[in-house]
Structures are given as C-alpha cells and as structure tokens.
Queue: 3 jobs
Job 1
Amino acid sequence: MNTNFIALFSLIIGSVLFHGDKKTSANNQGDNFIYQGRVEKINNNSVILISSASSVSFNFIGDKCDVKLQSIDTWEHHNYVSLELDGEYIGRLKIEKGLAKTYPVAITTNNKVHQLTIYKATEASNGGVLFNGTTATVTEINHQTKKKIEFIGNSITCGMGNDIKEIPCGTGEWFDQHNAYWAYGPILSRALNADFLLSSVSGIGMYRNWNDEHIEEAIMPDVYENLYLNKDNSKPFDFNFQPDLVSICLGTNDLSDGDGVKKRLPFNEEKYVANYINFIKTVYKHSPKTRIVLLNSPMVSGEKNTILVKCLKRVIEAFKKDKKHKKIALFEYAPMEPKGCGYHPDIEDHKLMAQQLESFFKKLLNEK
C-alpha cells in the first residue's frame, strides 16, 4: 500500500467524529474497542484492518447499529468483511470501492447489550478496510485473557475460495469467494476459545511461490516482519501478540508445478529446509516463549506429501539440541479433495481441517 496515500487519507478522516475517545494501539485493547490481527491505527480511533481475519470489536446498547467502512488502496476495488453479533455469524458485507459508506447491521438478538465484531474477510493483498466509527451507543468492553495462536500460511490459511454460497467459482473477482472468518484457523480458535492472528498470503511459499522462483515475488521470510505482509518494510509489525502457539503451514506452493506455462525448476529440498530453519529462528526472535507446530498440507498427497513430511522432520531435527525453546511439534493432515474454488477447501472442508487439529492443538496449549 502506498504510504503517501495513507498519510493523505489520515488528514482527510482526521475531522470525522468517532464514538469512544480512548486511544488504543494496534492489537490492543481500549475502554471501548478491541483490535486484533494486523491492523494500523490512523487517528481518532480509526483503524485499518490489514490481514485476513483482522478485527475490531465493540459493545453497544439498543437495536440500531450502523458502521462506517471503506475499502482503501491505490487500486480501487471492493472488499469484504464478516460480521459476528453476540457470538453468532450474521454474514459477509461487500464494502464497495470509493468513499467511506455507512452500512447498517441487522440486529438479530434481544440482548440489552450487544457485541459486534467486524472481521476482514479478504487478505492483505486486497488492500485495507478502514473502520471509521459507528452510530451505535458504545459501552465499555472487557476482553478476557485467552490462549493465543498465530497461523502462518498461504491461501489455504487465508480462506481463499472457501465461500461459494453467493458468488460461484469462476465468476466475479478472484477474491469474491474469500471468507477468512471460515478459514480453519479462526474456526479452530473459536472451538478452543483462543485469540488468533493470521499471517498468511495467497500463493506464498518458504523459498519460492506458486508460480515464481523467488525472482519477482517476495516469499514469506521476506514479508513476515512487515505490517502489511508485503515488500514495504517502512512499517514493521510490532509482534505484541506473543502467541502461546505458532502454527506454520507452508509448502503447498513450494511443491506446486505452477501454471504449467512459466518455467518451473524441480523442487529444491535443501533450499526449502534451509529457509524453513532460518524462518523459525525469526519467529523465535519475536516470540521466544512460543511453542511451534509444523503442518503438512491437506492439498498435497502421494510422493509430494512424502517429500514434504521428510523436509519438515529435517527442520525439526535441526532444533533437536535447542534447549532455549520448546520442542517443535509436527501434525500431518489426512489428504482431502477440496470442494472450493481453484482447488482450495470450501467452508465445510475448513471445518474438517479444524476438527482434525482440535485435540492436538488443545493438548499443546495445555502443556506446562
């Protein structure tokens, strides 16, 4: 995202009134609003939701609530958010391109005090969603202490192609079927009553991407420390989240054959393993007390899965004598035939993936 654009945009929205005068920082809590995920505070409590499933939550009184939202980027296009009211999913909103607009929220419960959470359904590469206030009467919100999980991955972790109820595959824009709320990480976190952070980018890999040999495009080790998960390192991520558990699911794109047109080299096991080891060192640098679990991919099977699991075991072996950090775990998915768009899991597939992980992750989170 163009930083000059954001600076200009900050001046434009600076005079807009916002319900709640307590200023908070990204990934933090104020009296009236809780921000989670990769977000950027602008001013007057306005915030840009950046990464998949980044969110803002607030409590309000009454039966009327409008929210002011805008899809912002130098590339003007629409975006999506998912809404959760009083703990129940109430649907996905299309945020039209152009100036900020006010969107009504349907009140579906009789609670005296409601809680609304707005999740970014699309990913960082789709540009930010600006949350710039609500007409509702906002009250103080308290956030209970929970276990924390960070999910690092690619398009599968983003929830790409999973929501096909409204717009069929092959129609609309490539991101019209995104719904990070129903990706396996958020589903699993809700089941475990855990807070979560998604650090995921479609098409990305550990040493190369889906259709690029790390020539034109950045790989995960290049972007992980940057707030916007892109090449722009002028805005570093603060890493205040401090997860109890970090889940890494990268390898599907490293092992892919690309589009079959662009030249694709054979999979380089040594590069993959070396990059993975160095990436884990980066994770430890920012979250030294975390437990790490490596996942294979439900989209990789046969000989490729054998290679992938072999590589992951080599990575774990490299840390076998590491006494400073907790032992790295490995989880192997059962392979599946995905039913979403572009050979991606749909929502039901993501639910099955979360079910596979639930008892394993619960055990890791509860270990002393």
Note: DSSP finds seven helices and 16 strands in the chain.
Job 2
Amino acid sequence: MSTTEPIDAATLGARVRRFALPLFLAVFLVVGSFGAADGQPDRRPADWFMVLLLLTASLPLYWLRTHPIPVLWTTVVATLVYMLMQYPWGPVVFPFIIAVFTSIRLGYRLAGWSALAALYIGHVGGRMVLGINHDGVYQVLLVGACFVVLGFVAELFRAHRDRVMAAARTRKEAELRQAGEERLRIAQELHDVVAHHISLINVQASTALHLVDRQPEQAGPALSAIKDASKEALVELRSIVGILRQSDESAPRQPVTGLDRLEHLVSRTSRAGLEVHTVVHGDPQPLPTGLDRAAFRIIQESLTNVVRHARATAATVRIQYGDQALVLQVDDDGHSLTGAPTEGNGIVGMRERATALGGTLTATRTPTGGLRIIATLPLPERSGQTDVGRVEVGDPGHA
C-alpha cells in the first residue's frame, strides 16, 4: 500500500504552469534559431550542440523561483558559450533576460547585476581573446546600455514588490492587533457578566439557605432572584459567545448594554440585599456605543465588588454629564481598614476600559472606610451646549 500523499488539483496546476514557460521557451528557441540560421550564412551552422545549449538555457527556468542563483548562472554560461561559438543570432537571450529580471525582482540584486556584467564582459572580452571580429564601439556601448536598462527595470519591479509586501505585512499586523483588542474586549465582557451575575446568585443562594428552614415563606423571593439572574446571565453570555462564532446568523435582538439599563441593574442588585441610590447631574445625552457600554460595565463591576467584598448595606451611583466628560462615581458605606484598597481583576479591568477610551479611573477610600470608584470618560466634542447642573461629583455631601 502506497503512503505517498495524493497531489491536489491546485498543486498539480501550479506545477504545470511552472513547466509550461520553460517548455514553450525551449521549443521557441530551437525553432527560432533554426529559422534564423537560414538567413545568416556567415555564422556557424545549426547542429546538435546548439540545441543542447538552447535547452540548457531554457529548461532550468522551471526551478528559477526555488533555486534562482544556480539557474541564473546556468543560463549565463549557456548563453555566453552560444554567443562565443558564433551560432546564429536569434531568441537565445530570452532565457537570460527572464532569469536576470526574476532574480533581481526576488531580491537577489547582487547576483542579477553580476550576471549582467559577466555576460557583457565575457562576450566582449571573449571575442577579443578569440580573435573574433567584434562590433564597433557604438554597438558595444548600445548593448551595454540595454543591459543597464534591463537591470533598472528589474529594480523598479523589485521596489514595487517590496512596497506591496510591506503594505500586506502592515495590514496583517493591524488585523492581528485588532483581533487582540477584540479578544481583550470580549474577555472583559465575559468577566463583567459572569462576576456580576454569579455574585448576585451567590448572595441570594446564601439568603435562601438561611431562610429555607427558619422562614421558608421568605425564601421564595431569593430563589426567584436567582432564577432571573441566571436567565439574564445566560442571555448575555449567549450574545457574547455569538461574537466568537463569527457566523452568518442574524443580528442579535438583544439591545446593546448601556446606561439605559441602569435602572434594571440597580433593581436586580437591590434584590440581592444592597440598597442602591442613583443621582444624575446634568442633562442625559446620547452616548457613543463603546462609551455607553463601558460606563454601564464600570458601574456594574463596581456594584459587583461591593456585593462580593464590602460589608456594606448601601451604595450610591452618581452620573454627571458634562460638556467634555462623563463622570461616574460609586460609593459604598462599607467599613474597611485604612489605606489604599487592594486592586483585583475587577478594578484593573475597569481601569483598562476607561484608559481605552482616553479616560481615567481611581479607587480610593471614603471618609467612613468604604470604597469610592471615580471614572472620567471623555465625551465627543459638542457645540452650542452649556454645562447645566454641574456639581463636584467627588463631594460626598451630594448624596
């Protein structure tokens, strides 16, 4: 049983195309040179060695892209011997032109220019050494000029190829960078969704376990909250995972998460036992989708941290719409040791969201020991607007 892997149609077609040019060129050289010999009685008559030289110059072009330098010099030697033996002038230079042009275009510049110089000097010098009647100075200079032009044309194509490849690499790097940023955004979304809903489920489950034996009639609301939180978590996770599939499914019917769902978030968090108050300063305005989603997630993660880590009974969410920035502040009435708060994945993720939008996020202690999160997110520039109801959000007196 043979273990050789079958060659697919594309590979076979590429090999056929690669061999088509050398084969066609070989036939063309042989036929053309024999035809040219009839009109050049002063040249050496065509024979089997002339055919051998023509085949040696043309058939190796099959390996030109994989072994350009050996093929190039094989073509140079065959062409030079053909010329010095004074076989009929004809299409013999075509393989040499193709080999030089391709070598320089692929980046083998030194080899290409060396081949041009070798054939030119070898032909002129060889005729002088062998005592062959050489052409006039004008013709010698004209041939040299043609060689130089050939080299410069090949250089132009090489420069164009390099620019195309550089542009392709730049696009590829940009695509990889965008893909990495998108994966980071999705990871942040998954963290926020899972952490928030699982925290609420954990609190409600603890409440239900505490009440199921002592006050079973009051365990129902806690179990209902667990059901609602788990259902919403599944909906959001399904929406996020749908992005990873990159399928041609219809657009999600779920609206993009934003501050318009803040009331729902506050209600759900309050059912977990944390009393949440919201205060809005300024005139609410439509926000860009990315900024709107980031603002909601920052508030969501801040409340999640309060539920999970703070010994708090209440929290206050302040939102200030200004001319230049949207300022978010979340305070809780928890009690903790003095000093800067420990930053876990939640605070780091919130800060990354704010930084990605050109904003800032700080986490400090309130005078009572609770945690205060302040995020400043730049707004798009607007004209003809005044700052209505501006207050200093960091002032704890505006509760």
Note: Residues 137-214 form the longest helix (78 residues).
Job 3
Amino acid sequence: MAADRLRLIRSANIGPVSYAQLLARFGTATAAIDAIPMLAARGGGRAPVLADPRLIDREMATVARLGGQYLFSDDPDYPPLLAALENAPPALILRGDRALLGRPGIAMVGARNASAAACRFARQLGHDLANEGVVVVSGLARGIDTAAHVGALGGQMGDGGTIAVVATGMDIAFPPENAELQERIAREALLIAEQPPGTEPRARHFPYRNRIIAGLAMGTVVVEAAPKSGSLITARLAAEAGREVMAVPGSPLDPRAQGCNQLIRDGATLVQNVADILEQVRPIDPRMVRMPTSPFGGAPPEDASDAERRAITALLGAVAVPVDELIRQSGAAPAIVQTVLLELELAGRLERHAGGRVSLTG
C-alpha cells in the first residue's frame, strides 16, 4: 500500500537503508510498521515517532494536485543506476516525462557564480548531449546547472532531454529566479524531488539531492568548481558509486577552476567537447548495472541473540566504523549484524554515514 510505504519513509529514525531492510525482513510496509516498537525495544530505546497518517494523506493529495506522481524503489521503472546506491531514495516524486529515467544520463554540475564562458560551454555541452540522445541531469542551481538544463532543452532533436533534481519540494522554486525554468522542465522534460511538497531549501537536503544527481547518471561532468564546493561532493559521490568523473579544465589563475583542475590531476577525464564525454560512457548500458545485494548480506533476515546483540553493540562507538569491519570482528553472520544495526537505528542509538559506516549517537 503506497500510503504505508510513504508513512514508513516519513517516520523518524528511518532512512533509506533501514527502509530497505525493513521491507526485506517483513515483506510489506504495513507489517514493518507493526514490528517497529518491538525492534526498537530490542535496540534499547523507544519506538520512533511514526508519521501521522493524516499528514501522509494530505501529502499524497497535494502531489496529485500538483500533477506529480510517486516512484517507489520497488517499482519496475525505478532507474537501475540509482537503485545500485546503498542509500537509494525509497521514493521519488516526479513531474514530467518519466520515460527519461530509462535513457542514458550524464550529470553536469558546477559553480553557482560561474563565468560567462563556462556557462556558455555548459549550455553547448547540454545541447550536444541531448542531440546525441543523452539525458542531462543537474540540480537547477544558478550558474552551470541552469546553463546545462537550458542547453539540453534546446537540443532535444534526439532522444535526450534533461532531468532537474531539486532539494526542495517540487512546488518550491530555488533559486526563485528559476521558477519559470523549473516549470518548463516539468512540462517538457522531468522534475524530481525527494522531499515532500512545501519543503523549503535547507542545507542538509542538498547533499541528499547531490547523491540522486550522481546516482542517475553514468558519469558526472564538473564545469568550474571551487575547492570544497557542492559540485565536488557530487563528483566524489559519483566516484564512490563507480561512475565516471570528468572535468573541464580552467585557468590556474581563476579560483573557480581550481576544483576542476584538482579533479583532473587526481585522475578525472579531461573534457573539451561532447565527444570526450561520449567516449567515456558510450560502452556503458544502464540496464546492465549490477543490482544491489540483499541488505542482509544475501541471507534471510533473522533475529539476533542477546549475546550477539551485546557483542556487536560493544564494538560500536562515537567513531564511525565500516559495517564490514563489524562483521569481521564480531564473527557474526552479515544478516545478524544488519539486524542489530537496524534495531539500534530504530531506537535512535545509531547513525549511518557515507561509505557504509556506522556509529553510536550521543
């Protein structure tokens, strides 16, 4: 039932990993919701506050009124490239042409205060990629993102197009000056939001947005980026997912080019034209991506004994540690370790970090 799945996603202490584990263990969101108090008690805490069903009904009605639709992670149309991420979003809200999700995509990101030359180059790359049947994925930010989207919208003579992933609700335009462009993308291409309608821009949501951008694409192109910028975070996420990372070189005298030049020095592919991009990704077919294994390590989920629960919890602390290391040191089966971590997370005692690492809270 879609409402129960959405209620599970919108509840406290339940992220993408725990959502997938709950469904793998209990089969349905309804059964998982019923089991949460018991699991949280085993984790040594109170059950998380579950989302109010009335709020879920209101959200679904708002999405329908806005012309949007939900795409859940178990839907056959869910993009395999995105599904391959450990923390793939359990639900997306779409408005526009969902067929674009089945076509090869390239992410293009860069500086918000980009130079005129870089914006022109990004616009041309977006146009040429779309004409080659490639979907340009970006985040609808100022500067390079905007240029990439505009270029792709103007280059849809082929089967390409553009996908805009926003960090807000789909009814909120950020930046405000892109409201018209956001509406045009929703009409002519595809707009994606992970957050519910009405969500205003918040700093913590942008990294979530970036993982979707990187996850939808076979590779990420960075066009101007300062060191430690959000664009470099997207590039790092793409690399961690095993995707191609490409960058447009710039003058060493321009701070906006330092991030791209650093990426190239560290092994990213240098991009001078659309042919350089296609050369890197054309052999890759998104339908051939290896799907993620069971969140319980390939084995059926099972309950942990009190002794196993104590031993695994004792290995955790304030410093994040890889789950694989917990499995190695505890000697427990992967399914047992994942069960204990799920219980701790539902009890509010566990925090998940990038790279499959976990730590105790507080």
Note: The longest strand covers residues 91-96.
